[in-house]
Amino acid sequence: MIQHELPIATFSIVACDLDAGQWGVGVQSKFLAVGSVVPWAEPQAGAVATQAYANPRYEPEGLALLREGLTAETVVARLTEADPGREARQLGVVDAGGNGASFTGSECHAWAGGRTGLGYAAQGNILVSADTVDALADTFVASRGPLAERLLECLAAAQAAGGDRRGQQSASLLVVERDGGYAGLSDVVVDLRCDDGARPIDELRRLHGIHGALFGKTPRDCWLPVDDALRAELKARLERLGYERLDDWAGVENLEERVDGEDEIDPVVLAELRRMS
What we know:
With 277 residues, the chain is α+β, with helices and mostly antiparallel strands. It has eight helices and twelve strands. The protein folds into two domains: 10-215, Glutamine Phosphoribosylpyrophosphate, subunit 1, domain 1 (4-Layer Sandwich), CATH 3.60.20; 220-276, no CATH class.
C-alpha cells in the first residue's frame, strides 16, 4: 500500500457523445479541488479519470495512447501494467470510438468498483455501496441531451444513491469538443469546479447555469427582431446604465458572444438587460 499519498475518495463518470463530438468527465469527492487531479479529456481522442491513490501521470500518458488510436481497454492495461502502485489505483477511460474501460486495484478502499458500457466508464472508491456506481451508469444510459447536463444528472443521482462514504467536498465538470469552446478558438466547452463546499454538486449546477447564460447559443431563428419600439427601449435602458452601445454593455457583462449586430437580439441578452435596468 502507498502510504504517503492521500486517497481521492471519489465517484466519477467518464463519457462521450459521439454524435456531438464531445468527451467529458464528471466527478465528486471528499477531497480538496478534485478537478485539479482526476478529470482529463481531449477531443477526438478520449477522456481519463485517475483516482483512489491517483497517479497523475496517467493523464499525459493515457491521452497520448488514446491519441494514437488505442482502445480504452488497451490504454487501461498499458497504464496499470507499467505502474508498480496499480493495486491502489482506480482508473476510468473512454476512447475515440466510445468504448469504456475501468480498473479498480485490489487495495482500493471499500466499497470500490466500476461499470462500463457504450460511451461511458463509471467508477468509485470509499463509497457507501455499489448503488452509487449503478446510479452513475444507469442515469447516463437513460439520459438524453447535452453531455454536460447528462454528467450533472449522473453526479446528482450518484450522490442521492449514497455517494462518497466520507461525505462531500468538491466536484468538477469537464467537457471538450474540437473548436467547441470560447469563440470557436478553444476545445474546452465546459470546465467548472467547486473546490471546497458543503454541497459541491449543487454548486456545480449553479455554475453551469451561469455558464450557459454567458456562453450558450440561442438558435438564430429564436432571436428577436429589433423594431423601432424595441430599439428605443434598448437605448433608454443602456443610457440608464451609462452606455451608448449594446456591445459595450455586453462586453462588461461577459455577454459579448451573444451579441451580433443591431437588427436582432438574443432573448437572453434582452432579459438580462431588462433585469439590470
